[in-house]
């Protein structure tokens, strides 16, 4: 049987004010999109017109005005389950990813909410599983302290297992709805899960029927060993944050290898790095926009984090002077050289200053690759990462809105389509369908069938 040709998967990671910290300050940029339903509808419908795989909503459970100059788009935003329900009503095909935190939720509640949204969206939902990194969240949920990584993932492992069992607690054939006999459901096909574990006691069944997709796809992100294991074991897609091709290739190979070790098909685990495409109709236009964005940064130019990142103390170097000798770095490998190379490409010249390296670091401090260039240059780098097996697709993070995503859709996507790298039409209408994933068999029905064979 001939395997279908591998194609890119594209989604949008919503930063309502743009990924660049100063993106909202551009004259043409939106500033209040996070709370404007018309803006959110326009974004989702624009993505659907371009045949994107998904629209992704992140979430956080704490905030502070101190974030306004570094993460303004993450400072305040709508609750994702409510927002996705609204977006589902104005779209038909695009996948919808909702973020839910296992550390501060209950499995039964998340199972109900996700199953309900899968119905409301017609089978287009996926769940981004997070355990939470912000220690301030504990104070908002009556906790004395935020749990460490190990405890959070122990909790998450059990949490996800319960949710998946609850999704299966109603078999597909459970509903009889026989008006003549009066039988509405076949009770033998509705199951208690009777989970008794270290952290949870959940009887079930769920009071929502099995979701349209059977099992709602899981996604996750993170760099810790536990997050990588979770992704390889359970996720349909893993979001990554590498900015270097070789590092991303290593991450890609590691997750695929771990998936095989868990008995999974590695082609059913998709690696999706974050990508910040700053597109200009010409190279010069792109570089001008990049410099304009950086000129709007509100910063005191504290180089301490950048110094740690490159392994060279920059505090004694003038901001507008040349970079020090990179061989002075105390860090092993060539990562520092690669980071400087990316900053040079973004600026459009090699003799960059400490200030210009700081600007690139500030624009990418959340770990996603920023590419500045004309449409062909952006498409070329995306294709390189795809062909080199550093990515199966990308989680697009526009540097500003709406122009950042409009230019990408209007100028870059057609190039990817002409090269045969990205779809021109949808051939499915569920999240699983967009990724070529089959609907899994119900675990209780499968168990009953196996018992029947053995009798």
Describe the structure.
The chain is α/β, with parallel strands linked by helices. It has two domains: 9-278 and 374-446, TIM Barrel, CATH 3.20.20.30; 282-367, no CATH class. It contains 15 helices and eleven strands. The chain has helices spanning 37-49, 72-75, 80-88, 107-120, 149-167, 225-234, 245-261, 283-295, 304-310, 335-347, 354-364, 375-387, 403-418, 431-434, 443-454; strands spanning 9-13, 54-56, 95-101, 125-130, 195-196, 201-202, 218-221, 237-240, 270-279, 369-373, 393-396. Strand 7, helix 6 and strand 8 (237-240) form a beta-alpha-beta unit.
Oligomeric status of the shown chains? single chain
* Mean pLDDT rating: 95
From the spread of the alpha carbons, the general shape counts as globular
The top level CATH class name of the largest domain: Alpha Beta
Gap between N and C termini, in Å?
Answer: 35 Å
Q: How many DSSP-defined strands?
A: 11
CATH architecture verdict of the largest domain? Alpha-Beta Barrel
How many distinct helices?
Answer: 15
- The H-level CATH homologous superfamily of the largest domain, spelled out, is Luciferase-like domain
Q: How would you classify the helix and strand content by structural class?
A: alpha/beta
> For the CA atoms, what is the radius of gyration?
23 Å
Secondary-structure element string? EHEHHEHEHEEEHEHEHHHHEHEHHH
Tell me roughly what share of residues is in helical segments. Answer: 25-40%
The CATH topology assignment of the largest domain is TIM Barrel
Number of domains: 2
Main beta sheet strand tally, sense and closure: 8 strands, parallel, barrel
How much strand?
5-15%
Biggest sheet strand order reads: 1-2-3-4-7-8-9-11
Name the poorly predicted regions.
none
